[in-house]
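User: For my dataset I need records formatted as: sequence, then structure tokens, nothing else. Please produce one.
Assistant:
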Amino acid sequence: MPTGVALRDAREQLFDAAERVLLRAGPNALTSRAVTTEAGCAKGVLHRHFTDFDAFLAELVLDRARRVEAQAAVLRESAGTGTVAGNLTGALTALFGSVAVAILSKLGFEVAASTGRSAEADYLKRLGASAIIDRKELAAAPRPLNKERWAGGIDVVGSTTLANVLSMIRYRGAVAACGLAGGMDLPVTVAPFILRGVSLLGIDSVMRPLADRQVAWKRLEADLDRTKLSEMTKEIGLAEVLEQAPEIVDGRVRGRIVVKIG
């Protein structure tokens, strides 16, 4: 790479190279040498612009997140009906919630699934849900404590929905939070934590150590019914992504959408 290349140009070339490595060979192949080789530059170029490889990965994630945010702004303008927040809440609940329902049901838990689309009730029941809750039940202004209803919860919405779920968890129960489709705020008091011993577990998928990921993948292999996974999965080509995106924003999809590269 020429010595006089602009800083931003070098960073972009490294980011693009890392993305190509990920798409072609997966996360295990993503090393500093693989990135610089793919970018066609000396290994020192990466370390000249980033403190270490972890710093590079963090900046890569932030850069791609900004791109997604920009794309989302375009999609918001093209959304046909309903509110974007409501539609995204439904789409993300269907995406992550479907897997959670299938796994928890197989493990023997009695599962209550929340959805804003009554037409999806039969689909969720086929995955293993024994009760369907209208999303509106969890959208009201939360109270410090409500009647105990559940031993635990998996939330992809955040905000008021998460606050309501926390207020309804039984003594010493737990809630895993892994999304913010409804907002980044959390209008909750300390009551569930200090009166019922409820735990709020934060789940991230960016900086999680590889060893933890491998354990999770093995559990998915053992605990997720392949037949149910097939029902909740739709495969599309890369060329179909822009066509499919408004469907997601409008809340007209369910389950997992897998983009086939190549």
